[in-house]
Design goal:
The chain is α/β, with parallel strands linked by helices. Helices cover 40% and strands 16% of the residues. A 5-stranded mixed beta sheet has the order 3-2-1-4-5. The longest helix has 18 residues, at 154-171. The radius of gyration is 21 Å and the shape is globular.
Length: 200
Amino acid sequence: MGLELKKPIVFFDLETTGVDVANDRIVEISILKLHPDGKKEVKTRRVNPLMPIPKGASEVHGIYDEDVQDEPSFKSLAKSLAQFIGNSDLAGYNSNKFDVPLLVEEFLRVGVDFDISNRSLVDVQNIFHKMEQRTLVAAYKFYCGKDLTDAHSAEADNTATYEVLEAQLDRYDELESNVEFLAEFSKRSNNADLIGRIVF
């Protein structure tokens, strides 16, 4: 089943200097524009962020300062990008939380009007998370091939959690079976408090 389009939709992805939507900059943008008539257009462009790219970011996307030093700034590309995107709806992976806000910030910084209020925003990651549940019941079925029939009783949930971890250790070669590794690997961020309201 293909997409039914009433107007164009732009799938886009950004590589950036980091993950701070307000302060980081784009170093590469790739756009796939789909038109209602089936026409596809792809544009990918490196961008000089006019700031050093942190080593950690470069290690993730493979784009270093020397790769973008002769590329145009976002300011010089902004009007043509906004024109190419036009009134298209927007789509991406984790785009509602990261790519869309960062792109809007970049346009705002250079004074180009890029209104998203009349666009549909499709986040493929959110669809994935809603369709493929991330519950213990789903994990038990996926990793252990069993139905958790007594879910939400403490003992059944606890036993299932242990079995899921054992199955994960069997499935993923990159996991080490020692607790120190698993604790570090399963940590989401470096929190100052237990509930994660303050992050280092």
